[in-house]
Amino acid sequence: MDVLYKIFIEPFALMGSAPDLLVQTVWEGLVAGVLYALIALGFVLIFKASGVFNFAQGIMVVFAALTLVGLHEKGVPAWLAVILALVVMFGLALTIERVVLRPLVNQPDIILFMATFGITYFLIGFGESVFGGNPKVMIADELYLPRGVTDVEMLGGRVSFQHLDVAAAIIASVMIAALAVFFQYTRIGRALRAVADSHKAALSVGISLNQIWVIVWFTAGVVALVTGIMWGARSDVSFALEVIALKALPVLILGGFTSIPGAIVGGLIIGVGEKIGEFYWGGLLGGGIETWLAYFIALAFLLFRPQGLFGEKIIERI
């Protein structure tokens, strides 16, 4: 009976008695959720173009952030380092298209999926050899990312808003909105949707599959760089960020692998769910809920709605 009370009554009683703590928890979850959505967007773009889950997106976040910090450590000014990091990500996209993707056109999806594993471990080894394995400090001050905190009196208590979290939420939201508009209403976006439907059909109407893949992988690289800057400013830049980036997998399962709105909604659900679960039920379950709750939620969705909230239900004739 005591266990049932702690599970079903005590957390909600605490929410009602300390609403300021609930607002604080939800805010932190929203910030994490927006960043999860930004990571998931990189997966969505590549999945829409190739029909394959890009396992390498996580390490691309780490590689982009390490490139930026590594260039600055070599004496390159911060904003020039950002531009050069984008050039590196474009070169990476071009190399992946020429060396990996072009020879695998019209191959089974599992072949392309396994190719992303190869890209992942190549970038891990190459990154460690160039940048080393030690964590690095993100150049947040040099990029004029805000520091400090603002306390707001509300609901009988005080809610703290980290300026970095506010900036991260705004930057991520603007980028998500801009990419959504770009791929929904531009010629490239229409070509991307055609490629997603059928590689052969897209080629038959004159769409260059190779160019689309370069554009999409470079866009995913830009997303990876922004994500790496935001997450790196909240913690150190290290290969551990790859694990955080893979939180996009449950986000995609919730929202649907081909849906940009789904990536946004899924990211917010996962972010807020993790924070609330950790704060109100973490003590009962021994803590560490944030490491596995997202995957538990994803498993529940796979059982009852495998296509996700915004995914298309596939119907095949037999």
UniProtKB/TrEMBL annotation:
Coiled-coil region list: none
CDD domains associated with the record: TM_PBP1_LivH_like
GO BP terms, alphabetized: amino acid transport
Compartments, record wording: Cell membrane
Main location: membrane
Organism superkingdom: Bacteria
Pfam family, one: BPD_transp_2
Keyword annotations: Amino-acid transport, Cell membrane, Membrane, Transmembrane, Transmembrane helix, Transport
Any one of the GO CC terms: plasma membrane
Membrane topology field: Multi-pass membrane protein
A GO term for molecular function: transmembrane transporter activity
Membrane-crossing residue ranges in chain numbering: 26-47, 52-72, 78-96, 108-127, 166-186, 207-231, 251-272, 279-304
Similarity annotation: Belongs to the binding-protein-dependent transport system permease family. LivHM subfamily.
Protein name: Branched-chain amino acid ABC transporter permease
Species annotation: Salinarimonas soli
